[in-house]
Amino acid sequence: MPYLTKSKIMAYRQCPKRLWLEIHKPELRDDSGAQMAFAAGNQVGAAARQAFDLDGKGTLVDVETLGHVEAIEETKRLLAEGAGPIFEAGISAVGGLAYADVMLPDRTDGVLRWRMIEVKSSTSVKDYQRDDIAVQAYLAKEAGIPLVSASLAYINRDFSYSGRAGYQGLFKLVELGDEAAERHEEVKAWFTKAHEVADQEVEPEIETGDQCYSPFSCGFLSYCNRNKVSPDYPLSSLPRLRQIRREAIENTGVDDLREAPDHLLNDLQKRVKHCSATGEVFFQADAAAAKLAPYGYPARFLDFETITFAVPRLEYTRPYEQIPFQFSLHTLQSDERLIHNGLMHHEFLDLSGNNPSDECALELVRLCGSEGPIYAYNAGFEAKVIRDMANSHSDEIGEALRSIEARLVDLLPIARHHYYHPIQHGSWSLKAVLPAICPDLSYSELEGVQDGTMAQTAYLEAIDPATSAERKETLRRQLHDYCRLDTLALVRLYYFFKGDPFDDYYTYTQV
Predict the structure, then answer these.
(1) What is the 3-state secondary structure (H, E, C) of 411-475?
(2) Closest CA to 177 of 144, 208, 232, 140
(3) pLDDT the model gives residue 511
(4) What is the pLDDT of residue 510?
(5) Which of 66, 255, 286, 409 could in theory staple to 373 by disulfide, Cβ–Cβ 3.0 to 4.6 A?
(6) What are the CA-CA distances from residue 88 to residues 42, 44, 391, 433 (Å)?
(7) Which phi and psi angles does 268 have, rounded to 5°?
(8) Shortest CA distance to 28 belongs to which of 226, 280, 247, 261?
């Protein structure tokens, strides 16, 4: 009987068709984004080895080097010797295979037993992780490994990394051994049915649905939808459409939002339906201009680029803290023609690899002054970044940052309430609105960095000591161009909503 790994069983739990494709047609899987997730998992695993091996006496079973068969045999030897901790312990039984993140020996009553710990990058216990523990505990039982506990370790959001004390305290533990033991027969049935699916010669016929997105987006979704003809305006383009309403619309036989019954739509959804059906653009120009009328000058336009780490890498940071490594700031000094004043641009970008938050805070305070609105798009994000920086300062810098937060003006509600173009397809993200209002500004024309995820990837590469100076300068330029476009786009939206065209006579000054 061939092995089914724990990940294959979890694939079966999500969708039997996914399991079959994982085994028989893995080349069809879209692995975009998998590299970052894999790297994050490796970081969490490395931190766990520090946190649960304070004496440095643990052994890592390196399956990449040993292969599955030798990894299993090496684990059996270590378990028999009572050596520990053991990391990535290979456990195999009844046609199943799993690697336990941490195995700690326990001799409380003079008898050798083991505490099994599965380490996750989440900040709470998820339902699917309970399945994960149940699978591992079942395999350990069938393999004859006596467990005293089976726990899940998840990230402690309150942990602060000092750099010197390592990662002790990074994880919280929750004991799930009793629960897992009660599910042995259930897990046994999963293995039986999963093997039956894996042995099928023909791909299971299962329609796409909610299971394609939960608990993770399936990498085979594009393949499974390859023969589907989607309408130009699918129901997924209706904003804030709850599942119960979507099902009600689908039950009428409708899959095109232009045909959705009005009585099942709210006012915003009706607006999207009308514009999509007629091709008309909805724009309440006077109302949009009125929303901006109370704000004076100087006017600033702000956007941050941030990075988060499940395992903190920078001193005095916490797990998943939004760390601002870059911001772009455009400034209009007055409402006179810009040919006389200039559109000034300032930028902060720290690629040193050190914690950039303090320098970012100082530069932001210096550039934002003490008066005038500061425009952002979906400003709650900028507000949180600024607030987090302010909370780490008890002096005048903290007060200045709180003042900056209070001056934020969000352009997103103006767009959502007073503008809609059919090409937005139900989205008011900046990248959806910009092509409608400013088609001459395009992220797709940028080199290297075209979205926030690519900006994070570029930052990580730039701070890597192995990155050459030449490559680092290329990444610096690409990050500059991307973040600058974000705030230039805000300036363009601002003038559009004000009803004042932004034309070629405007000058631009890079500071």
Answers:
(1) CHHHHHHHEECHHHCCCCCHHHHHHHHCCCCCHHHCCCCCCHHHHHHHHHHHHCCCCCHHHHHHH
(2) 140
(3) 43
(4) 45
(5) 409
(6) 12, 13, 39, 47
(7) -65, -40
(8) 226
Report CA torsion sign: 54, 56, 60, 65.
positive
Q: 501 φ, ψ to 5°? A: -60, 140
Asked whether the CA dihedral 489, 493, 495, 500 is positive or negative, the reply is positive
- Span 345-386, pLDDT tens digits: 999 999 999 999 999 999 999 999 999 999 999 999 999 999
**Encoding tokens for residue 384?**
């949180």
ω into 85 cis (within 30 of 0): yes
Q: Quick one: which of 45, 8, 42, 48 has its CA closest to 24?
A: 8
Provide the whole-model pTM: 0.86
Report cis status (omega within 30 of 0) of the bond before 298: yes
Strand duo 59-60 + 86-93: pairing:
parallel
CA distance 119 to 173: 9
- How many Cβ atoms are within 10 Å of 194's Cβ, its own excluded? 23
Residue pair 393/353 in contact (Cβ under 8 Å)? The answer is no
Instruction: Check residue 238 and report its DSSP letter.
Output: S
Report the amino acid identity of residue 479. L
Per DSSP, the residues of 148-202 read EEEEEEEE-TT--B-SSSTTTTSEEEEE-HHHHHTTHHHHHHHHHHHHHHHH-SS
